[in-house]
Amino acid sequence: MALSEHFKMMVEVIKDVVPVLTSGVLTVIILSCVLFGIQTYLNLTQGIFSIGASVFQNGHLYSILMYPFYHQTFAQLLLNITPLVFLSGSLEKGVGTVRFLFLFVLLSSTIGLFYSFLDLLQEDGFQGHTEGLVPVTLASVSLTTMHTKMTKAFLCGVSFPTMALPWVFLIITTALVPHCVLPCNVIAILVGVMYGKGWVSFLDVSEAKAGVLEKMLPFRLFRSLSGNMFVPASTEDRRKTLLPQINPTPGSYPVQAYAPLPTVNTAAVNYEGWPHQMSAMSSPTPPSNLHGHVAGHSFGHFSQQSLGHSCNHSHGHGRKTEGLLLQQ
Q1: For the residues of 66-97, what is the DSSP string, one character each?
Q2: How far apart are CA 101 and CA 27, in angstroms?
Q3: How confident is the model at residue 256 (pLDDT cuts 50, 70, 90)?
């Protein structure tokens, strides 16, 4: 039992740490893995889908759409998926799965165009060609921070302004993830800020259009297969999905029970001529102070009678003496 309880506790901790995969993030991961499997099986040329000056020099315009899903090594694939899972899920939960996938393509293509164009303008070029999910992930974080109401962010116990969060992740990902070019990541953050400020809002898909697209293929298939992992575009439906109403069954939660008060029937009882309240739970033996009251009453009554009798006797004896003296 101890081992099973310990295992359950570990599972609960893992559930709290690892975020729940949504349909949009899962779709991007599947496409990246499929493309990696195809290039490994066909032994394609390294850097065939990377972006840089060659996009315009060699006419590889297709790389602008393909570079986020392209990874040269398996380690690079895993290191690119990790920040996507932890950092991009909040954007999908805020806009819905359909709009997230559309923003993913829009952000990645914009970043690819800007970076390739700037690389073409340089005489020696930048540090090299780049690919992977890190630039789009940083753009997603930057876009999310533009719409959040939180002013402070915490990372490993360190507090800093929320607007600095993308730049912190920029340093971490550039240092740890291979084939990450710093200028491309900087451009990605600036593109996320640009979309967050609404400068290119005419390119975005509205909530109403996204709701219509949800009912069409392939999104209708995604919704039927993924279930709760699919985030609707409608704000009300999104709240119901992410914050479901809890209807506990009777008896599932402990309820504090109170013991019923005993029924007490009081009645006036005369004890030796004196009224006394006695309950059904009390002892039939009268209290000891009643004897004091009775004794006091009897003693007082007896004293008054004796005193009155003595006084009357004394007064009568005095009158007789006075009559005798007058006769004499």
Answers
A1: HGGG--SSHHHHHHHHHHHHHHSHHHHHHH-H
A2: 9
A3: low
